[in-house]
Amino acid sequence: MSDAAFLGMPSFPKAARNALADTQLRRNLAHATGTIRQKRADVVGELDDWEELREAGRAIKERTLRHLDHYLLQLEERVTAAGGQVHWARDGEEACRIVTDLIRATGEREVVKVKSMATQEIGLNEALADAGIAAYETDLAELIVQLGEDHPSHILVPAIHRNRAEIREIFLRAMAEYGAAAPADLGDDPRQLAEAARQHLREKFLRAKVGISGANFLVADTGTAVVVESEGNGRMCLTLPETLISVVGIEKTVPTWQDLEVFLQLLPRSSTGERMNPYTSTWTGTAADDGPRAFHLVLLDGGRTDTLADPIGRQALNCIRCSACLNVCPVYERVGGHAYGSVYPGPIGAILGPQLRGTSSEVDRSLPFASTLCGACYDVCPVKINIPEVLVHLRARVVDESRERRMPTPERLAMTAARWVLSEPSRLGTAQRAASAGGRLLSRRGRIGRLPGPLSAWTDARDAPVPAEESFRTWWRRTRDERT
Amino acid sequence: MRIALFITCFNDTLYPATGRAVVTLLERLGCTVEFPMEQTCCGQMHFNTGYQRECVPLVRRFTEVFAGYDAVVTPSGSCAGMVREYHGRVAEVSGDARLASAVQALPEVYELSEFLVDVLQVTDVGAYFPHRVTYHPTCHSLRMLGVGDKPLTLLRAVRGIDLVELPAAEQCCGFGGTFAVKNSDTSVAMCADKVRHVLDTGAEVLSAGDNSCLMHIGGTLSRLRTGVRTVHLAEILASTEEKPATDGPQPSPLPRRTTEGVRSR
Amino acid sequence: MSAREDVLSRIRRALADVGDTEAPADVPVPRHYSPGGTPPAGSQEAVKLLAERLADYGAAVQRVTAETVATAVARAIAVRGGDCVVVPRGFPREWQAGLAPERVLSDAPRLSVHELDRADGVVTTAAAAIAGTGTLVLDGGPGQGRRALTLVPDYHLCVVRAEQVVASVPEALARLDPLRPLTFVSGPSATSDIELDRVEGVHGPRTLEVLLIG
């Protein structure tokens, strides 16, 4: 269902066009993002040290990333000392293989899963299915996506593109196939839908022998893993099975236990707009009489070291997956998550995806351009990732890679011509006179309407201005020149 | 104080009235403004579209043209933002240490409202503009430069003005430079919402500190025959009873149909 | 080369711009945020704030005294706890004085998940509470039991003493032992996955009731 990048995705503008045509989707998104934006603003407003927390969060991440090898080795040592086992994976395929082997060793054929971006990113469910292992998603939204054979479209609320009526329909149709059926009289009240999910999943929790999770944070100096959640499905998967396997990106490390005091304040307020999420679980290796007897931590690279190698792009690894940037993004609000073509949509997806995966696919090359650079994402980011800065940086990477092709694109020709014109004031003056003359030819009653060819991308919906008869510099020379 | 006007290539070509308004306004406030004729462009379009190498000669020219002034004033939040945030980066990309130090040595580049409020320390510029106006705080002014409510403070002091609040003002209009053509469907959808909010205010004039955003929103207002004019902040502030702003961007043609077409988009 | 060595060497290559002499502590981490302390730990204000914040996220809260706690426990269980409640080892004897012994389920010997699933509720103490966020912290200490006990039954009654209440997250973390499995509980389980409409009660206890002593 999910892969690093969803297979065969078109470029962002093409996918966005389809999404924009879906009025139901746009209504669902506008409602949901509007709600969460307000909730976040309210709880962030309660703290007068929010900016100091953000700065601390950013700095802790910077310290971690600049010394990631040191912290990972410390983490490995502490987890091992506490009875856990640490595995390393160069890429998603290797991580899937490690997890599959670990499950096979238990003899189990099914696992319950906590919502985890890392396991989605590596396509773990598909890999397990190929190995004959059923992986049950237990987060409500992930369940909706899994039952609906759909793609996630939001980091926090993967089924944000679905409304209650659609969810009811999915539950009625698909639950019976995977386990306990939905009650026949199921309504579309979110309360009833949540109750149906509780009933459907309970038997799976109670019989599960293997749980799979990610982690929001890994604490290097104690070897502690942290999962932040709301529903209690996470606690079920982390507590009841005999074996727990956590697949975690190497960048999720934080140096010290004390550092959590920053992130446990930043994350819930940025993410769900709550002062604190209902449940946060922390565990260090295994405990004698509590929870799984075996704990495996799979540390995933999967393009993170490539991202780390770029001093400007590196800050994308600060991300704590809160999704505040999605909720404020005017582009995301209108096109939704699917157009971004991977499990990481929105502004963070536009800078993370092309770095984790590279820019070989059409969609990954188009992602850095899927933004107006309005900066709303940077303003809300709890770890101060300067997303616009990374976007323009990645645009340059995409353009520079295209320079290696023999045939220049029309855009490159235009940009080269513009540079030539703008490099000399005299050329600019000549171009202005030409534009003015051309503009007057095209204009009617002071405006330029629909034009053919590439200009239609602008003029299909918007009039264009007519270049002035007299440019500013000509006016200045005519009226003021003697004074300069 | 030697003040240079950086008009921007965009205003120079398409919106010279804005530049004339800046000159009128600053001279009325007792400043002497110089216009270095050798100026061209800050390189923003190239930089933001990924053509960083093409930016290098533009940034080099900028540093040469504006070296030695005490302050540079520009009627564009996004161009001021480009200079302040990214000229250093372009210099870095060029690998030219001399360019990097030239960028370092550049005088402060101010967006107009910053210059008025922070440097000249005036909020009442003696303007008169008897119209119903709503103001769109452009993204780069708001979030990159952090001009805050300086433009609104200036507008509130204008005599005769009926300033009305724009709903969801801080949402981007969808311009985004080449985004408007590369992702034109999304851009148009964003602008439709912005236009709907503008119409909800009942304003006859939409103002902003960036003509690029005004061109975008105005292009839609004009296409829909809404009758709402776009006027740059500088032109409102330059306007007086004796010399009203008459030569601003053209008003869009009179309404041909109701605004229902916009509302239902 | 093992994956471990490979990943570590990729990291070192990626960090070519970081000087060899730079130590982790050389990267400054400014901690100018509030360390907490307002209201003071254990104060009446802190307890009051905790009560408000817990209630705000859907927990039922009662202020009680050392004298009335046993009665309050018995009454709460009678009203909401159903027929049988789990009482973990170490839960103060005097606090359970009002409970009928035949309604009390012990986790020694260890209950199976299915037995636990048949229990109606659980009553526990806590390790700490955070007033500003309305959070209870369980660390498996005396009177709290293993994590599954406060998870599988549908009703959780938690008794908190005033001196356990701190104002902020930093104060709470400083008091806790990271080597123990910890659970931070802020209200009953909840989801906002459907249209971002918050619904309380999914997989964890759907009712959280808190007795605050002092």
Automatic annotation (TrEMBL), chain A:
Domain LUD: start-end pairs: 74-286
Name of the molecule in the record: Iron-sulfur cluster-binding protein
Residue ranges constituting the Lactate utilization protein B C-terminal domain according to the UniProt record: 398-479
GO biological process, one term: lactate metabolic process
GO MF: 4 iron, 4 sulfur cluster binding
UniProt KW keywords: 4Fe-4S, Electron transport, Iron, Iron-sulfur, Metal-binding, Repeat, Transport
4Fe-4S keyword on record: yes
Pfam families: Fer4_8, LUD_dom, LutB_C
Keyword 4Fe-4S: yes
Record PANTHER family: LACTATE UTILIZATION PROTEIN B
Domain 4Fe-4S ferredoxin-type: 316-385
UniProtKB/TrEMBL annotation, chain B:
The protein, known as: (Fe-S)-binding protein
GO molecular function: oxidoreductase activity
A Pfam match: CCG
Region (Disordered): 239-265
Any one GO cellular component localisation term in the record: cytosol
Residue span(s) of domain Cysteine-rich: 3-83, 133-217
InterPro entries: Cys_rich_dom
TrEMBL record, chain C:
Protein name as annotated: Lactate utilization protein C
Region (Disordered): 19-43
PANTHER family noted in UniProt: LACTATE UTILIZATION PROTEIN C (PTHR43682)
Residue ranges annotated for the LUD domain, each copy included: 115-213
Pfam families recorded: LUD_dom
InterPro entries given in the database record: FTHF_cligase-like_sf, LUD_dom, NagB/RpiA_transferase-like
Matches recorded under SUPFAM superfamilies: NagB/RpiA/CoA transferase-like
